[in-house]
Design goal:
The chain has 93 residues and is mainly alpha-helical. It has a domain of 62 residues. 75% of the residues lie in helices and 0% in strands. It contains 3 helices and no strands. The protein is elongated and about 50 Å long. The termini are far apart.
Length: 93
């Protein structure tokens, strides 16, 4: 495999994690109360994306291949949970 093909495959592997992670951070601004201690939008998106990449890698190891629907469900749930934690949703009641 050529290096450019490897980079293309890796970028396509992490693209769903970055899309869902930053979308959760953006939608979290509209749906959650703003906390004074909440980090910047790009920090929230980066944390969500890193959690998402970890979930995708775990799904790849567990199932032995990429693209399983269960992995994508876990990705959405993990990113939503990390957004709630990073934005401080557990503090507001």
């Amino acid at each position: 495999m050529a290096p450019s093909d490897l980079v293309n495959h890796l970028l396509n592997f992490v693209a769903p994690a970055f899309a869902v992670g930053f979308l959760c951070a953006l939608l979290g601004r509209f749906s959650m109360r703003r906390s004074a201690r909440a980090p910047a939008l790009w920090v929230q998106g980066a944390v969500n994306a890193l959690v998402g990449v970890a979930v995708l890698a775990g799904g790849l190891v567990y199932f032995g291949r990429d693209g399983m629907m269960a992995t994508y469900v876990a990705l959405v749930l993990a990113c939503a949970t990390s957004q709630w934690l990073v934005a401080g949703g557990w503090r507001s009641a």
